[in-house]
Amino acid sequence: MRATVLVIDSFGIGALPDAEKYGDTGSNTAMHICDNVIGGANWPNLQKLGLGNASMLLGNALKGCAPVDAPLASFGVMKEASPGKDTTTGHWELAGIILDKAFPVFPAEYPSFPPELVADFEKAVGRKIIGNKAASGTVIIEELGAEHMKSGDLICYTSADSVFQIAAHEDIVPIDELYSICETARKLCDPYMVGRIIARPFEGQPGSFVRTSRRHDYSIALPEDSVLDYFRSNGIKTTAVGKIGDIFNQQGIDKSWPDKGNPACIERTLKLLSETPANDEFIFVNLVDTDMIYGHRRDIQGYHDAVKRIDDSLPQIIDLMTDGDLLVITADHGCDPSFKGTDHTREHVPMLYYIKGKEGSSLGVRETFTDLPASLTSFFGISPFKTGNSFN
C-alpha cells in the first residue's frame, strides 16, 4: 500500500472563523484566483476530484471549477487548530502535532531583531548585518544587494512569519559558509522560539539579482513525535520530497529528496510512484512555488498557472497508482494573491482524499488538520495516532 500527500503550498480555500485576529477577514486564495483570471480557473483534474465541491462546503463557488456530480475523491475542508499561519505550524499539524501557542514573530519595523540577538549573531559569525526589518525577499535584495556586495554584511530580515532570513550573494558568501551561518543562527534563535532560519542565496548584479535554488530552511526542533515517526515505528517507509525534510529536521524520514521547485518535485514524485515499493510507503511532497514565487509576490495569474501545472500532472500520478493506493491533495495555509500585503493568510485548506478504485464522498468541514494523520493510520491498518478523527 502506498499513500502520497501533495501539499500545494498556501492553497487556502477560505478565511477561518478566527481570521479577524490575523487581519485576514475576507481572504480566499482559491476563490479569488478563480475570480481574477479570464474565464475562471482551468483546473479540470482538480475539478474532477472535487475541488469545487469542497469549496461549496463553505458556500464559495469557484469560477471555472464548479462542483461535479460524481467527484472522484472524497472532498472536504479542514480548519487549523494551531494558532498561526506559517509553513511549519501547518505542516506539523498535517503530521499530527497541534501547537498550543503560535511561534513568536519579530516586529515589522526596524529594528526587528533584539539588540542582544544581533550582537551575539555578529560576534559568532564575524559579519555585520544590514536590513533588520520585515520585507519581501526580492525587494530587500534589490534594496541592499549592492551594499552587501561591497561590505560583505549579511542581509537579515523577517516577515509576518516566525523567521530569521539571511540573504547573501553566492560570490560574496560561499554557500557552505552561508549554511554554517544559518546553523549558528538556529542555535542563537532557539531561546526566542523562532520557527525557521532560512538561507536565501542569490546571484547576479544590481538591478538583476536572482535568488538561486539553494535555499535551505532550518526549523526549530519538533516538540514531540509526528506521524512520520509513528509510521517508521510501524514498518512504513517514509519518503520526503521538496522542503518536507527541512520542515521536520529530517526526523521520522527514511529518505529525503530535497528537490527545488515544483517541476523537480513533481518529476521526483512520478519517479517514486513508478517504482514498486518493497513494503508500505508514505510519500510526503511540498509544492512550494505557489507560495514562494506567486503568493507572496501577489501574482494572481502566475499562481493560477502554477496550480494548472500541478493539475496537468495529476493524470500521470493517478495512472501510476495501483488499486487501493491513496492520493491526498491539501495545503498548509493561505496566501491570497489578491489580498493586502505580502504575507500568508489564515484560511481553511482543501482536502481531496482519493483512493483509487473507491467512490468519493463528502468529508464535510473538519475541525483540525490532524484528521489527516488519523486517516492515514487507518488507511495503513495500524493503531490510531494520538489525535484526530479518521475520514475512513
Topology:
Elements: E1 2-8, H1 29-36, H2 44-49, H3 51-56, E2 74-78, H4 87-94, H5 115-125, E3 129-134, H6 137-151, E4 154-158, E5 163-169, H7 175-189, E6 196-203, E7 210-211, E8 216-219, H8 227-233, E9 237-241, H9 244-247, E10 255-257, H10 262-274, E11 281-287, H11 289-295, H12 300-320, E12 326-330, E13 349-355, E14 362-366, H13 371-380
Parallel strand pairs: 1-11, 1-12, 2-14, 3-4, 5-6, 9-10, 9-11
Antiparallel strand pairs: 2-13, 4-5, 6-7, 6-8, 12-13
Helix pairs in contact: 1-12, 5-7, 10-12, 11-12
Structure description:
This protein is of the alpha/beta class and 392 residues long. It has 2 domains: 2-101 and 222-380, Alkaline Phosphatase, subunit A (3-Layer(aba) Sandwich); 115-219, Alpha-Beta Plaits (2-Layer Sandwich), CATH 3.30.70.1250. Helix content is 33%, strand content 19%. The protein is built from 13 helices and 14 strands. It has helices spanning 29-36, 44-49, 51-56, 87-94, 115-125, 137-151, 175-189, 227-233, 244-247, 262-274, 289-295, 300-320, 371-380; strands spanning 2-8, 74-78, 129-134, 154-158, 163-169, 196-203, 210-211, 216-219, 237-241, 255-257, 281-287, 326-330, 349-355, 362-366. The strands form 2 sheets. An 8-stranded mixed sheet has the order 10-9-11-1-12-13-2-14, sandwiched between helices. Strands 3, 4, 5, 6, 7 and 8 form a 6-stranded mixed sheet that branches. It starts with a strand and ends in a 12-residue tail after the last helix. The model has no long low-confidence stretch (mean pLDDT 96).
